[in-house]
Amino acid sequence: MVWEGDVSVFDVDHPEASTAYAWADPEPGSARLRYFAVLGKPPVDSANDAVKAAIAARYRNEVNR
Length: 65
Known about the structure:
Strand content: 35-45%
Oligomer: single chain
Number of domains: 1
Helix content: 25-40%
Number of helices: 1
Largest sheet: 3 strands, antiparallel
Low-confidence stretches: none
């Protein structure tokens, strides 16, 4: 397991998605929280998919710095 926590699911009025997922995660080594929001559009079809997509995007951003 890479991440464990609660993900909120929202109905949204968006041209490409009807669902969005959001959660907060502590910043490593800090008391601050980092907030995430992901639209539920393919390939994201679940809260689990949303977390995986956010982790992958963060990794890609860090690698490309």
